[in-house]
Each structure stands twice: as C-alpha cells, then as structure tokens.
Please model this.
Amino acid sequence: MQINFHQKHFNLSDHQKDYMSAKISGLEIYKVMADPGVSVKVDIEYQEHLSTDKKIVLAVTVVVPHETLRAETNCISAEEGIDIIEAKLRDQLEKYKDKHQ
Model:
C-alpha cells in the first residue's frame, strides 16, 4: 500500500505523518488493503475562513480494485481527524468486503 500526503497551507510534522501512516496501515486487517496496487491519498488543508474552531480539512481517498473509498472531516488537529476518518473507512471497508465476497 502506497500512502501519499498532499498539504495545502499546512505542514505535517514527521510525528504526525507517522501517526497517520500507522492508523491507515492498521486498516490492512482488511485483505484488500494489503494489496500492493492499493493507493492512499491524504489531503490536508488549513482553511482560515471556516467559522468554527475546526479549521483543518482532512480527506483520505483509497483506491481499491473496482472502487474508490473516500472520507472527509473538519477537525482541530491532524491526529483527531485521522481517528475520525479511520472509523469512517472501516465502515466503508466492511461494506466493500461484504459486497465483493
């Protein structure tokens, strides 16, 4: 699995990248995620104009065979966002597993 980070108006520290990579790699319990052809794109952007405290927009796109899974959230920190997105992706991967078995 290949993970690509794209940052806009936001710089991820090495610790944050490692944390996010570990969370996404934890999804390899689903057989499809262990496929070498699976690619993951993490987009993170700081948006000053948002009216809430949650000014970081985090989106993760996972390209698996025959489908593209995507989860997005507004958050205060990158760590909080990836925790939310991991749960959303788990739900989508369960549905994918049921559909393609």
In short: The first strand starts at residue 2 and ends at 8.
